[in-house]
Ig-like domain-containing protein (Oryzias javanicus), 209 residues
Amino acid sequence: MSIKLCCCLISFALFSHVAADFGHIMVNETRQIILRCHQFVKGDATWSREKDGSLSRIITIGVDEDKKHTNDPRYNGRADKSLVIINAKFSDSGRYYCNNEPAVELTVIPPGTKIQRVNETERVTLECPDEESEDSKWSRLFGEIPQQRFKTKNQKLIIQDAKQEDSGLYYCGGKPAVFLNVTRRSTSALITLERAILVVQQSPVQSTV
Ligand SMILES: *[C@@H]1O[C@H](CO)[C@@H](O)[C@H](O)[C@H]1NC(C)=O
Ligand SMILES: *[C@@H]1O[C@H](CO)[C@@H](O)[C@H](O)[C@H]1NC(C)=O
Ligand SMILES: *[C@@H]1O[C@H](CO)[C@@H](O)[C@H](O)[C@H]1NC(C)=O
């Protein structure tokens, strides 16, 4: 019992402490995607992916040779220790780690998904593709739907005052519904403000998984 609890706490610490450090890549299905480690890696780099709350190893990129931990031939290593995914598909979406450090939160947008654009600070309404569906609960691929700025009405999700971090894939009734692309305002003052907000958000207090 106490061992279990201890493991829980360790994995919680692993994921919660560092959750905010991911880089974000959001792309359509494509021929290849390159994921980079956050920091320069001198020795081996082991890439892994978060699955059901634990990390499953993909490949160890060594100085001289690579060692694959899966049978999937689409994963390859580069000399700079980055991970290349060939023919990236929706199912590759997930959180990737380099030497157990958060590296990339990857969103591969499923084909046929509606892509909706909104400028920052504006209001946007996302619609459930299947209006007949009984289940129209909205969720996100990564993270939670914040309660303050988001509300649902007649199966629609209304976002007030859109923010950069709202960008991403939204699910309605458990199915991918809309990819929201929030365009950053290019005024330098606003970008500085955003950075300040980003720093506040990266404090451990808010980083829940
Ligand atoms: C989001 O919009 C920007 C331009 O505002 C574009 O450069 C980028 O490719 C878009 N992202 C996706 C995933 O469509
Ligand atoms: C993604 O694909 C959609 C069409 O499915 C296209 O409209 C959009 O521009 C593409 N985005 C990027 C970033 O390639
Ligand atoms: C975003 O703002 C630009 C320039 O202010 C404008 O041209 C564009 O139509 C806006 N996009 C949306 C989706 O409202």
